[in-house]
Structures are given as C-alpha cells and as structure tokens.
Specification:
With 175 residues, the chain is an alpha+beta fold. 19% of the residues lie in helices and 31% in strands. The longest helix has 23 residues. The termini are far apart.
Amino acid sequence: MKKALVLMVVLLLAVLTSGAAAFAGVGNGSGPLCTAGDPVEFTGTVVDYLGDGGGIVLLTDIEGVPTEIVLHGIGPARYWDDLGVDRPAVDEEITVYGYIVNCGGVERYILTSVEIPGEDPVLLRDETGRPLWRSLGRSGDAPYGPAYGKNGDMGEYGPGYGKNGDAGNYGPGPR
C-alpha cells in the first residue's frame, strides 16, 4: 500500500510539473517570435480606432475593391498631443506607411508613420521599430525619461506618471 501511495505521488508530481512547463513557454518573456516583412503604404479613410493607441481601421482600395484593413500602433493620444498634432479623425483621409510582421503565423500591419494632408509626416517608430512614445525602461535613455515622466519629472498622478514636475494630485502628501 505504501509503495502504491508513493508511486501515485510521484506520478502526480510528474504530471503537474510537465503541465506547468508546457504552459510556461520559452521562459524568457519574449513571447511569439515576430519577423518583419515587406513595407506597405495605404491611402484611405479612417473608419475607427482600436483603443487609445492600439491602431486604426482604414478603408482603402486594394485592386479596385474597397477594403477595411487594421493597422496597429497609431500611438496614444498623449504622444500626438506632445507633438502638437491632432490625431486623424474618423472619416479623414490619410496616407500611412508601415510594414507587415508575422507573429506566430499571424500577419499584422505595423505603422511607422502617418501623413495627414497639410501636416508634416508623423513618425511613430524609430529605425529599430520601437515606438517613439515608449521609454526604453526607467533608465532615462528615451524621450519620456525615467519612470514615464517627460524629461524625468514626477507628474500629475504621483511619482513617475506625469510631466509637471511635482508629486501630483494623487501622489504622496506634501513634502
């Protein structure tokens, strides 16, 4: 009886640890591997937004057929505000540039810049493909500085979240 109990415990541990390893994936946090493909250019009308910065739906003609395409990485409203440019409005015609990526067998269009008639092109990514609105971490080596505050300032919502230089309305009490 004791041998059977030990055998069941060993089998149970083997099943549980193998299942956890299967769900863990690579283990380095890299997620699915993405490969960049060909550059793309589309001119069309903005139909919808996918959340704040998630992307846009653009109505364009592909080989004479009206087609809605999803383009990822338009950038958050705060990025456009900091540039002093209005984000394209729904029903506005724009030209977008980007590239196709294949992530785990799923192809997506990633935006690199947007041209709005009468405005300078808005760049969305650097030469390595990183979004220009993202910090490279809390090291201060990116446009928004350490801890998300512009130029390293503290900000409106407490340390590290805004850009006005103080602890903010929701931060710690008076210093």
